[in-house]
Amino acid sequence: MTGLPPLSREELKNNLDLSASDLINGLQSLQQRYLTQREQNRFQLSSIFKEYIKSDRFTQI
User: Fold this and answer.
1) Which H or E run contains 26?
2) Cα dihedral angle (55, 14, 9, 34), rounded to 10 degrees?
3) Contact 13, 46 (CB under 8 A)
């Protein structure tokens, strides 16, 4: 999980079944919650969120 590269908005749009406006709104929402990080127009999960996803607690849901 930690080796995932940051993705551009275009790469995310190509991989997700979302409209452009839904994608933008979703990315903004995730950034406001500090669940994604943005660097040079590329997005990736925050390290804290990555750790949460890897935890047993998340996988038991």
Assistant:
1) helix 20-32
2) -20
3) no
Q: 36 forms bridges with which residues in the sheet?
A: 45
Q: Please tell me the distance from the alpha carbon of residue 5 to that of residue 27, in angstroms, as a whole number.
A: 16
- Nearest CA among 58, 51, 55, 57 for reference residue 2: 51
* 2-59 residue pLDDT tens: 567 899 999 999 999 999 999 999 999 999 999 999 989 999 999 888 888 788 666 6
pTM beyond 0.85 = no
